[in-house]
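Exercise 3.2. Students should predict the tertiary structure of the chain below and write it as structure tokens, then compare their answer with the key that follows.

Predict this chain's 3D structure.
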Amino acid sequence: MVMLADAPNVIVVGADSPFRTLADIVAAAKASKNLLDFATPGAGTPSHLIGEMFQDVAGIKLVHVPYKGAPAAITDTIAGRTAFMLSSIPSALTQIRNGKMRAIAVSADKRSPSLPDVPTIAEAGYQGFNAGTWYGLFVPAKTPEAVIQRLNAAANEALKAEDVIGRVKNEGGTILGGTKEIFAEKIRQDHAKLGKAVRDSGAKID
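Answer key:
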């Protein structure tokens, strides 16, 4: 019915990691005889699929280490037990801000308002890379068009409220809104893009 907001993933390392740029990670992955590993909150999560997509565009092979949620993955990444992690921004933001983790790159096509100094993966040399997590409102398939239009208008109006904008920004997201047609096209695009990542990687939900 309507897109509400989206939030990219962020590539993070522990504060003591030697990796400071995405180029550092890619170079290490290509040079090492032992495959680098990357942590995510779980198999089949957006973070996992974004990691698979990045391996494809960067021409590297990594070992995926799925955790049962973000907290354990963050703990091991801070401790250096995994080379790096792909995380939603809200999950990692506190540790980035307190200096325990270093943000390397975000997965959207634009920098995150929450991490304005962190480059995008596209800026790091992988033009066109854009993947993340979006949030939207859906209604049952047979909902009358007039009801859909009223709900869409109400949602778009609510997204203009300063407290809503501030809350979403603080969580690392970007307000979207728009028509149901824009939302439908986004779903079609992501179905094709993420479907390929699932098929190529054999990813399964835990």
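Discussion points: The chain is about 40% helix and 20% strand. The helical segments are 22-31, 46-58, 70-78, 89-97, 145-158, 162-170, 180-201.
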